[in-house]
Amino acid sequence: MNVQPGHYPILEAKQLWRTFSEKHSFFRRKQQGLHALQGVDLSVQAGEVLGVVGESGCGKSTLARLLVGLDRPSRGDVYFNNTPIHRPDSQHMLGMYDKENKYSLAKSLQYVFQDAVSALNPRKTVAMSLQEPMQYLLGLTRQHSETRLKQLMAQVKLPYELLQRYPHELSGGQAQRVGIARALAADPKVLVLDEPVSALDVSVQAQVLNVLLELKQTHKLTYVFISHDLSVVEKISQRVSVMYFGRVVEQGPVNDVFQQPCHPYTRLLLASIPRLDQSLDMSGMDSSTELPDPFNPPKGCAFAPRCSRAKPTCFQKQPTLSTMPGEQHTAACHFPHLS
Amino acid sequence: MQSYAVWRKGLHKPNQPAVRPSGWQLFIHNRLAYVGMWVFVGCTIVACLSPILPMPDPNETALAQRLVKPWFTQWLASGVEQDHGGDSGWLGTDHLGRDMLSRLLWGTQVSLLVGISATLVAALVGSLLGLVAGFWGGRTDNLLMRGIDMLMAFPYILLALAIVAVLGAGLMNALLAIAIVNIPFFARNVRGVTLGIARQPFVEAAHLVGKNRLQILLTDVLPNVLPTIVITMTTTLGWMILETAGLSFLGLGAQPPQADLGAMLGEGRKLLFTAPHVSVIPGLMIFILVMSINLVGDGIRDVLDPRLKSGVMGRPAAATDVQCEKIKSEMITAEVDGLQVNQLQTEFRIGATTYQAINDVSLTLAAGECMGLVGESGCGKSVLALSIARLVPSPPGCIVHGEVRQARDDLLRIPLSQLQNIRGNKVAYVFQDPATALHPLFTIGDQLVEAVRSHHPVSYQQAWQQAINWLERVQIPNPQQRAHSYPYQLSGGMRQRVVIAMALINQPQVLIADEPTTALDVTVQAQILRLLKKLQQDTGAALLFITHDFGVVASLCERVAVMYAGQIVEMGYTSDVLNHPAHPYTHQLIRCVPKLGNPLTEEGKLATIEGLPPATNALPTGCFFKPRCPWADASCSKSSIALTPIASQHWVRCGKPL
Q: Do A276 and B522 make contact, defined as CB atoms within 8 angstroms?
C-alpha cells in the first residue's frame, strides 16, 4: 500500500484520559487519583512523523504506553485505522485485545523503549530476541527467520557478529538499534518511539537518528516520536504536539510551531534551550518551575501560575485548542502570541 | 561438509568481546568452594556405594561385640595395633553391636536422600507459588502470600513437629514436614525477584512481540529467576539435612532399626560418657556434610550472583590510593590561585586488567573563572572530577601520576585529615543527581547546618541562620519554612538548588559541578545555570563545569576543555574552540549536535562520527581518535601526541590540526 503523507489518519487518540491509583482499598478510603492525561486528542497521518515534546511529568510516556496498548485509558480510546484498540469489556492487562486482534495489532503497531538495554532480555542473545516477533507474530520457524535476521541487522547497520551477543555486551547505541530491529521484525506500519535517543551520546544519537530517517523512507513507516529534546524533534518530525501537564497545548507543522510559537509555554521551552551561538540570557523569563498538583489539577490553565500573560480568566477557564495562523496550527491559550 | 559448517560456526565465536572466564573457571577459582565440592562429592559417592561395599548389614546385631571402640582409639590407648577383625569394624560398634562404619554410610545415604528430596519438593512448590504470586500480582498475590504468612507465623520446628504428629512418625513424613516448612522461604525469595523482573521493560517488550502470559512467564521471567532458585537451593540443602537429623534425633524421623545420622546421634546420646564414639562419629559426619554443602552453595552464589559476593560490598577507602613519586616542580612553594592539575593519571585495576581512565591531564583554573569540561560518556570527565579531591573509590581506582595543587597544597599528598578539611570547604562538589546527593532522613536545613559545622566552630543557631540565608540566595521561596522540609518534599530543581547552596555555603575556592543540570528539564536547567553563574560571580569561586552539552558550555563558560578517551584533546576560549575547532574530534562532535533551525545534510541526514571510542584497557598507539578520524594517515599512529599550542590560549592534541 503506497500512501501519501497526510492522506488519512492511521493512529488517533480521542479524548484520552488516564488517572492512576483511583481505587477503593479495603482499609483506606477512596484515594484521589493522579491525573496523568487529561483529554488528549491526537491524530497521526499515515507516512508522517509526529513529534511529541514536553518536560518530565507532562504525560508523554503515559501517552506512548496507551498508544501501543501497554496500558488502558481511563476514558476515551485509541483508534488504529479507525478501529478502537482498547475494549471496555476486556480486563486483560494489554487490554486491547481478544487474541486475534492482539496479534494483528502488534503486527502493525510497535514500540521502541527509552532504556534500550533493559528492554532486552539479559539471558537472550540478540538473535533470540529478534527471532521472537518473527516466531510469535509471523509464525516463522527458526530456519526461515535466518535470512530475515540478516536483513534486519543490515537495515539498522549492525554487523552480523552481534547476533550472538548478549545485551550487556552491547553499547547503548547498538542496543537501541537492536530495539529498533526488533520493532521492525514483524514489518509494522507505525512505530511509537519513547525517547529513543535520550540516553545516548550526541555522536551515537546522530547515528541512530539517521537509521530511523532511512528506515522511514525505505519502509514507508509512520512514527510517533516522543522526546524532550526540541532540536531532535525538529530534525525528524513533520508535525509536532507540545504537551504540558497532561494536555496538548500546541500542535501543528514543525516549522510553524518552532518559528511562530503561539503558546507561552512553547516559547519558554524554545528560549530555554542552551545554544552554541549565544551565551546565557541572565534575565530569566519565568521564576517558578513548579507544576500544579497532579492529584488536584487546577480548574483553569495549568500554565497560568508560570505565565507572564496570565489574566483572571486563565485561572478560571480551561482553554481549548483553537486555530492559530498557519495551516493546521492549533494552540490552547486564551491569550496566544499572534504576531 | 557438516564438519565444515560446524567449523565455520565456531569461527564466529572469536568475534565475541574480551574472553570472559566461564562459570566453572570462576567456581574453581574459589578454593574453599572447590574443596567443599570434592568433600561433598566424595561423601555422596561413598554413601551411594554403601550397598555394594563389603560391609556387614547395618542392622545386624551382635550383642557379644557391644560398644567396641574404633581402631584408632584402641591404637592410641595401647600403642600397639590390635587385631580388630573384619566383624568388629573400623569404627567400632554401637550398643547393639552393630557395625558403626556400615551404619554411618547407610545413614549418610538416607540423610542425603531426604535432604535433597525435601529441597527439591520445597523448591518446586515454593518457586511455583512465588512465580505466580509475583507475576500475576493483585488478588492472586495477596491470597498466596497471606497463606505463606500464615505458614511463617508458626515457629517452624513446632510446625514440623505438628505435621509429623498429624501424619505419624516416619522418614517420609519427616521429609514432607521439612519440605512444607521450607516452602515459604522459597516462595518469598522467588516472589521478590519475580516482582522486580515482571516490571522490567523487557517483559513489556515480550507482551508486544505477541507472547501470552504463560509464554512470558516460562521464557522471559523464569530464566532470570532461575539463578535465585539455584542459590536458594544450595544454601538450604545443608539446613534441610540438619533438620532431618533434628527430627530423627527427636525420634520422629527414621524409625529403629533404620540407620540415619540424626537417629544414630539420638541413640548415642545416652552413652556420651561411656562410649563417646557412638554419638561423635555421626555428629562429625553431619558437620562435614553440612559444611561442605554450605561452601559449595557460597561458591555457586558467588558465580551466579556476583553482587552478593562477600567482601564486594565493602566500603572503599576514605581517599583514593596514590602510587607515585612527587613530581619535581619548580613552583613548589608558589601559591596557586584557583586550581592546578598537572599530568594527572588515574587507573582502575580490575583483576589483571588496567583501565587507563585519565591519561596525562593538565589544566589550570583561575579564581573566578568558569571552565567547561566536555566529552561523551566514558571519556573520563567524571573520574577527573573525582580524582581532584581523591574521591575515586579505591580499590579499584588508583592515581598513578601527577599532582593537584590548590592554594599551597598538593591535594594528592597531604594527610587525610587535612584533605577532609579541604573537601566541602575549599573544594566543593555538585553532582548530577540531586536526589541521591541529599540524605533522605534529615531536613535540608539540618544538612546545611552540618555542612557548616563540620568545618567551622559556630553554634547551631548561627549555622541555621547561615543556612536560611543561603536558601534565600539560591532563590528558594519561603526559606524559613522550606528549611524544615525533607528532600522528598522538593522538586528536582529545588533539590539541586539546595545542593548548590550546600556546596557554596563554606565559600569554597573551587567548585566542581559534574553534570549538575543533566537530570533536569530544559526550563529548570536554564534557571539553575543562571543561578550558578550569578553565585559564581558573587563568590569569586573557580568553577569546573562538567557536561556533555556544548550549548551549556557556550552559555556559561569562558574556557573549555574537550576530553576524549581520558585525554584533553583541545582546550581554549569557548568562542575559539566552538567557532574554530582545531581537533577533528571537536569538529565532528560539534557537527553532530542537532541545532534548532539548522537543516539536515543534503542526503537528508545528520552528521555523525562513525565507530565507538576505544576501550580504555586497550588504547591504540599514537592518536586515540585515529580509528574514527577522516583525516588520519600513517603518521598519526607513530607516537603519542602531546597537547601543543596553536594560538594564544588554544591547545590541541593533534599532529595535523584543522
A: no
